[in-house]
Amino acid sequence: MGRLGGFEAVFLDPVGQAVQQRWADAAMTVAFEDLPPVSAFPVVPGRRWGPGLWWSATTGRHVAAGSNAMRAQLMVLDRDRDVTGLAGRPVRLLWRNRRGQVRSWVPQLFARRADGTALLADCPGHPDAGGERAVKAAEAVAQACADVGWTYRRIPPLDDALAANLKWLAGYRHPRNAGRPGLMAAVVEAFMRPRPLLEGTEAVGDPIEVLPAVFHALWHGRLTARLNTPLHERVLVGPQGWSDPGKKGGAG
Questions:
Q1: DSSP assignment, residue 228?
Q2: Residue 61 CB: number of other CB atoms within 10 A?
Q3: Fewer C-beta neighbours within 10 Å, C or N terminus of the chain?
Q4: Per-residue pLDDT for the chain (252 aa), expressed as one digit of tens each?
């Protein structure tokens, strides 16, 4: 390791052995999206939500999640069509600061993009989480990512309404909710003209059967709705790429 900028990576190989490698080489050759956490997420006594697993609709595999805030960001990335892989804490970055002291940081989240680049991110529950150490680490990790053409972000928590809507739709992300053969095509056809959610659902058939397919289509972006306000039966739903004139953000 050299001075700030001489970054190295530590990760676990397929048999669970720790490997330390020059960061620039690892970033180009290691499939971090396929690796387990290099270290476990901490368990904080008294916290209402602890570490767990998120089933990714993008990969069909589980991703380690360390907090409710991180799970919310996993939901966002799992719906992003530009994301092809996800992992929780797959790499530890090492560097020396300008005093020659060794420093390290494990970003919470890794996302592989379709063009081969990647995002490393932390998902603090509030802006001051982690204190000064987290701020300094963010600067170093951002530099390490920039050196290899990647991106680092310290992502703020989602708006409450958006988080609640994504959590609801996430319950329908599994392929089984697409329903019987032909149902998804009928759902998409029903909303080619934007209309209230329940109206379009009833035009297809029994809401008990059809609503899961509608929510599945909203999760995967085959349908679009305004998600920055609570979902309800009269919310306007339209085709993929449709923009609600009354929408101020949080597209489906």
A1: S
A2: 14
A3: N
A4: 434 458 999 999 988 899 999 999 999 999 999 999 999 887 777 766 678 899 999 999 999 998 889 999 999 999 999 999 999 999 999 999 888 889 999 999 999 999 999 999 999 987 777 788 888 999 999 999 999 999 999 999 999 999 999 999 999 999 999 999 999 999 999 999 999 999 999 999 999 999 999 999 999 999 999 999 999 999 999 999 887 655 543 334
Contact 195, 225 (CB under 8 A): no
Q: In angstroms, rounded to a whole number, what is the distance separating the alpha carbons of residues 250 and 43? A: 31
- Cα separation, 88 vs 193, in Å, equals 39
Name the strand (E) or helix (H) holding 140.
helix 131-147
Single-letter code of the amino acid located at 155: I
Got the DSSP string for 152-191?
EEEPPPPPHHHHHHHHHHHTT-SGGGG-STTHHHHHHHHT
